[in-house]
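Handout for the seminar on molecular recognition.
Each group receives one record of this type.
Step one: identify the two inputs.
Step two: read the structure output and locate the region that could contact zinc ion.
Step three: write two sentences on what you found, then compare them with the reference statements printed after the record.
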Amino acid sequence: MLPWGERWGEVRKLLERPGPFTHPDFEPSPDTLKMLQENMKVLVIGAGGLGCELLKDLALMGFTKLHVIDMDTIDLSNLNRQFLFRKKDIGESKAKVAAEFVNHRVKGCHVTYYYNKIQDFGEDFYRSFHLVVCGLDSIVARRWINGMLLSLLCYEDGMLEQNSVIPLVDGGTEGFKGNARVVLPGLTACIECTLDLFPPQVNFPLCTIAHTPRLPEHCIEYVRILLWPKENPFSSETAIDGDDPQHINWIFEKAQKRAAEYGISGVTYRLTQGVVKRIIPAVASTNAVIAAACATEAFKLATSACTPMNNYFVFNDTDGIYTYTYEQEKKEDCVACSQVPQELEMKLSDKLQDVITTLAESLQYQMKKPGLTAMIAGKTKSLYLHSPASIEEKLRPNLKKTIEELGLQDGMELAVADVTSPNTVLFRIKIKT
Amino acid sequence: MKNQKKDGTDAPKQGTQKRASAAQLRITKDINELTLPKTCDTEFPDPDDLLTFKLIICPDEGFYRGGRFVFSFKVGPNYPHEPPKVKCETMVYHPNIDLEGNVCLNILREDWKPVLTINSIVYGLQYLFLEPNPEDPLNKEAAEVLQNNRRLFEQNVVKTMKGGYIGNVYFDRCLK
Ligand SMILES: [Zn+2]
């Protein structure tokens, strides 16, 4: 091993010398490494297959202010690829064990961990990072962090303030396939722009599951969807917990019985767990490649030592090695990133009806039947909807209430749905005095 | 990026968001533009929660004329990437709805696409009452009767809607 003094020699070569691929803003300087080590605050979401790789890669690149969130605990089946975990760690928080491992192993690195859901934290928390790197297997979580980073964007006279952009580097793997991407919220294609790229959830026709099963999966789905709610094997209203071996065992045994009735083979405990938890097989080498690509992008974004990739990288080593990088285009009518919340002026004494009249009559909007909801203290509140009749009746009294009575305040966002636009449109309330 | 200072505290505050989620924005539009056929009505137990509601169908023609059928809708955080979960809360003698309330409608599962809306599902469910489909059965017995003896099927439907037994299964009265 190199003496500690020369620890960052290879990183220095990238940061202290000019080169043909550097970003136009880049100036070779010893300060850049210092900045990387002392200032750059990076959030890693997920401490699983990708997350372990990401933390290790980022720590060995010189990042020292790393933060990691993961709500999961360590399971025996993780140990073959989530290499920061040992047998003694089973049952412990992934974020905690991963952070402690890296802190112990990489001198000078300080990983802060959160054994939490990403939804537990708010804007102030996320705004405090320079970069977010995701290694997740959940589409819901990706959509959530994407929405959060978009909601942090600030606009001055309709122009995006560059320093409110927190880049999102996202990696995903599925067996021998993977992808890595860079999202500059508000500037380049976001997660929601490319939602079609995620494979749709496999849902077998219910009648096939019920009466004409042909695959082992059909038998497992039969037990999961139809038999479980009917027989309630673990007291009524107990939802299936994919991590509870008793639950999986019950489903496995029933599925095996059903498979035998129909002469179907292939129902195993592993497959049962896979179907119930919707597990996509993970391959350690794919995780390593994708995490390396993500960490490299994080390094480029942090230092400008190279122009970041533009903007979507696919990788496949099922049969030989195939990679391709291309530009995913920003969707013009993306529900999440296409809109800059417009300011909507109103007085605290205005009635909701006045606001709706403005939206309908002003030449700028010319809406037909605007439906309005607001976010108040993190919860959605329906202000007024035109249909259906049952909800319209309940909300109608709101029309006569004032902005103040409804609890609306300066800076809050209104979501307005109307037939005149393909998506719900966002407005930011500006209170006139 | 290098010039930015980000000295946030490490202790996170409880999360509050100022923006509605993409799923929420989408369902707001679906609901505000819902055009219900005259045989359908909705119930929102909490008008602030557009993700949980009931649909009531009272068919005015076909086998199920005069009945009243309640469906529960649960829209998840991955909407519209994933379809809502729909269950029939009324016990019904129907080839495509089982006695636990599971509904076999292609757009609720294998043929769901994000361009479809709540309205598409409402029309799909309404159609199930006009044209029960014995080809994709969930209640196999009902499907067989429909296929072999339409007259008997019709009698069974009327009997169950008034409240009565088919075999040893009792159906609660669900006439309007
Ligand atoms: Zn977008």
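Reference statements: Chain A has a mean pLDDT of 92. Residues 66 and 111 of chain A are 5 Å apart (CA to CA).
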